[in-house]
Structures are given as C-alpha cells and as structure tokens.
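Hey,
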Amino acid sequence: MNPHWDFPPENVSLPPGEIHLWRANIPATFPGLKKEDLTPEEWAEAEKMAPTIRPRYSVARWLTCSVLARTLNSTPSEITFDITAGGKPVLKMPAWAGSTPAFNRSHSGDWCIVAVVAEGQVGVDIESIRRREHRDGVIARWFLPEEKARWTQIATLSEQEKSAWFYERWTEKEAVLKCRGCGLIRIADFEQHRRGLHLFPFVPALGYAGCIASTHPGFLRFYESRFSENTSM
C-alpha cells in the first residue's frame, strides 16, 4: 500500500472502526533532547541511545504526545505514559471519560510514525531500506521456513529488491511483536503471535518499508504532521 498522506482536520475524531497513522519528518538539524521534556524513565532510556538516535526518539515522543492530545481533546503536557513489562509504552489513564486509546510508534532514518486505535491493540514498524549487516544470519534465525525458501529463490534479484523484500518481512515481524507487547521471541512462537491479527503493509515514504498490526480490522487514515525545531514538546 502506497498511501496518500493528508493534513488532518482541525478536530480529529477516532471512531472504533478506524486506525489512524501519523507521520512526521525529522529535521536534520534537530537540536536534540532536553531532560525537562521527559520523564525520569524516558530520560534514562534516551541516555542509553547513540547520539544519532536521540533526536528520533525526541521527535517520536513529540509526535506521540501531539497525536494523543488531539485525539483526546487534551494538551501534550497532560499526556503521560507507563511502560509494560514487555517494554511497550502505553497511555497512562488520566481523568478522561471512556476507554483509553492504544498507540504504538516507530522511527527510522528521517521519519517517525505513530499509530492509534480506539479499541484493541496496535503495533507499527518502519525501516529505511538499506543493506543490513549480517542479514543472512538474521534470516536464518528469525525468518519462517517459507521465507527462507523465498530468500533462496530471489538470490538473483538486485540488491535493492532483496533489501526491500527483507524489510517488508522484518517490519511485519516487528509490528506483530509490538502489537502483542513482547520482545523478540523464538521463531516457533511467531506464528502463534501473528494468528488473529490484521496486517497492513504500507510505504511510509520513498525508500522505506512499513507494516501495521492490529487486533481489529479498521479503515486506515494517513495524516501528515508538520514539525519544526520551534515546535513545543
């Protein structure tokens, strides 16, 4: 799926039958994180990251707070998160009426993505299509038997085509595991985790692969979010 990304309306509603996907481009000169912008847990997580990764984390957090605030008719400063035992960020229930929406986020290269659903669970993953180190080892360890067979069949394709195929499969796996709220698992368990989920492969941007996994089918809406270095976190 190669979606068209629209700028959102002033008032964004999230009906139970929809999945909203938001993307934002990460400025090359983004100044980085400020400790006061994050919770102590988030800052501890950010400090573990390489300096080149931290700006992506900061933009991803900004986009997540902005999206959830618009969805809940709130403000970004009111959005706070908990972390599940599996490491998945979830919205901390505030004084809002009704159910709490589920969300997931991913960032790679120049882009970050946030997926939101009103009910059930959602996972999303995007990857910049590039040559991955130790790719054959990753395939041998984590890919399903039919995927390994297909990898052998496409050995004569161009490097770009093979990399695109690899990341299409990889983003599916990451989206499924993020939807389920678990980390990397034994490959024998993957099909069990995938069973019952609805998968939506999509193109986040030129040169990227992505996939959404949701516990419910839904109508997808794709929103473009403006970001600048002066945007408030």
